[in-house]
Known about the structure:
6-stranded mixed beta sheet; 4-stranded antiparallel beta sheet; 18% helix
Amino acid sequence: MADNVITGFAAVFGVETDIGGYFRERLAKGAFTRTLKERPDVVMPLNHDSGRVLGRTSAGTLSLRENSGGLYFSLTVDPTTPEGQTALGTVGRRDVQGCSFGFRVKAEEWAFEEDDYRLPLRTITDVDLYEITLTGFPAYPTTTAALRASNSDAARRRIEAAQRKRGILR
């Protein structure tokens, strides 16, 4: 199982992104500190689809830690499931390279500049985290997801073997 690991940053600190043309948003360093200390059961599905769970913190298949760059994750993927095969295949091919996250804002700061024609800026300083997800369309394009480099060939071979066994690949 150790070869089927996807790692990356589900959130990156200090980077602004446009939220639907309504406002700009960024995450402050430490935005996940409180929630991670509370040890929530964070789930990692594919593309926010709760029916396609890849891992979760309570099962030990998903680990999270905050560092100076953002929210780092390590996901041990089950290659015998269709979701696991999809995740390993699309991340391995780099079709999916980013993440998103599901959260509730606990604290935020807003900046409105009268002489600034840009959108208002929301800085999120504290969240309740309940989900991170692999997605092809991350709201924060600087997020990352990749197969652990030293194991990508072995993971690809296992995925292909599982797909052949299911008749998906010949």
